[in-house]
Amino acid sequence: IMKGKEARDKLLAFRPEKMEDISGKDFAAKLTDTVNRVTSLFPGEKAIPGGFHLGFKKYRGSLPRPEATGVLNYQLDGMEYLMTQASEAGVKQIENLVREPLPHEEGYGWPGTRNAKKQSSGRSRPKRPAPGEVRHPKFDKLPTIAHRMPVELTFKAPEPVIREFFKRIGDSEKHFFETRIARVLNPASIPSAGKAASSEVKSGGGGAFGSIEIVGEEPAEDEPVESVKVLDKVSGGEDLTVYLRADLLLFIEEENLPELK
């Protein structure tokens, strides 16, 4: 229990000291400024989707509920942080960014609270354990230590940039993002594997890629070879497409840890 409380204290450091509601007009003004700053981080042609609005498109022509502005303001800061880390890591092309609406935007509370939106439970009677089956300890109720704010991000970048991006959000001391799903698509015919792949090709074995065949006549010893593109494919020079689904977590201040029975 003591270790659990120590871990919670560290997690609560990610929670903002204050999260007060602001006026709808103030939020709209901040949203516009934030979108402009983030857009300027990706200046290339088609580097960012058309109509990009950090996932807050519904507020381009309308204002949020007054009671939702505090949590939306926190989420907006987190979205800007995520995109800034992508830019500083070297990401040049954003394919898509989706923000899942929060229950506060519809006048509800967080799941599990008194004002939460009611959903059909769909619960069935628990099955009896089989003879000899190990029974896990029971809790009165599993604690909710954080509220989740899901976001989906798709972007293109070479492998070193992707590694740097995930390192940055993992080492963050400002916002806590929990990665739920991460998928990587390599359009190249030869998977990238860094220097290890280059050394494998040089030795002629092919390593994890199997035998590598060269189609066509081999050049003479003194004939220059345009090998940069081929080596880029092997060593990670090709852009990969990354799909990330993560939750921005807002940790809860008051929560009693459960007791084992």
From the structure above, extract its key features.
single chain, 261 residues, alpha+beta, 6 helices, 4 strands, globular
Structure at a glance:
This protein is of the alpha+beta class and 261 residues long. It is 30% helix and 15% strand.
Protein described:
This protein is α+β, with helices and mostly antiparallel strands. The chain has 6 helices and 4 strands, in the order H-H-H-E-E-H-E-H-H-E. It has helices at 2-12, 24-40, 69-89, 159-170, 194-203, 228-235, and strands spanning 93-99, 146-157, 177-185, 240-251. It has a 4-stranded antiparallel sheet with strand order 1-2-4-3. The chain is globular, with a radius of gyration of 24 Å. The protein starts with a helix and ends in a 10-residue tail after the last strand. The model is unreliable at 195-235 (pLDDT under 50).
Reconstruct the topology from this structure.
Elements: H1 2-12, H2 24-40, H3 69-89, E1 93-99, E2 146-157, H4 159-170, E3 177-185, H5 194-203, H6 228-235, E4 240-251
Antiparallel strand pairs: 1-2, 2-4, 3-4
Largest beta sheet: what is the strand line-up?
1-2-4-3
Report helical residue fraction.
25-40%
Number of strands: 4
Low-confidence stretches: 195-235
Largest sheet: 4 strands, antiparallel
Count of separate DSSP helical elements: 6
Query: How do the SSEs run, as a string of H and E?
Result: HHHEEHEHHE
